Each structure stands twice: as structure tokens, then as C-alpha cells.
Amino acid sequence: MNCTVESNETTQRSRPVFQPRIDLWETMTDWHLVAELPGVRPEELEIVVKDGTLTLEGKVRDRAVEEGKIRRSEYSIGDFRRTFQLGESLAADGAEATLKDGLLTLRLPKHESVLAKKIQIRQG
User: Fold this and answer.
1) How many angstroms separate the CA atoms of 48 and 83, rounded?
2) Could you tell me if residue 119 is inside a domain?
């Protein structure tokens, strides 16, 4: 599996641009991904599967402070994009994604054509 990560620049305020941390694993029937996305809203997140490539793309906005002055800010902000080459075995039609409490959980099933099949033996 190849994993390509784009951009690790910093903002004008010397804060790193957000890059979600992920866990990615493969089972016999599915690919699974969990990504930390604190403060990301579902409408600001796009998940695309095309030609065996999974792409997560979104935006983390600067946290606004209603009163006072920020003295220290360690949260990363900005646009992010993570791309993973998973191969042609993905069946995106059956994918499931949930975003809850800052965690994206994604399950991408594999095409039936790549799954192991048990062959029945007949007595002759």
C-alpha cells in the first residue's frame, strides 16, 4: 500500500496546517480507516474513491474567541488533503462513513471479485 501525503506548510501565524492522524488497516473483506478530525463538520469534509485511490479532503477553521485575546494557540488550521493508494479492489458503493466526536470512521468493502471463495468439493 502506498500512502501519499500532500503539504505540511505553516500559516502566516506560524501554526502548522492541519493534517489528520489516521489508522488504516485491511481485512480479508474490507479496508478500514479512522481519522482524527477535531472541529471538522461533515459539510466541510469530502471523501472520494476513484481508481483505487481514497482521498480525504476538508477544512479546519480557526477557532474564534468571543472575548479576550488568544495567548497561545496549538490547534492546526487550514485545508487538508490525504491520499491513499488502496488498489483496484475497492467497492465504493458499499462504503460506510461516520463522523462523531471528532473521529471519522470509514469502512470500504472490497469487490467480490477479489475476495477468497471456498470451492465445494463433490464426491465423484
Assistant:
1) 9
2) no
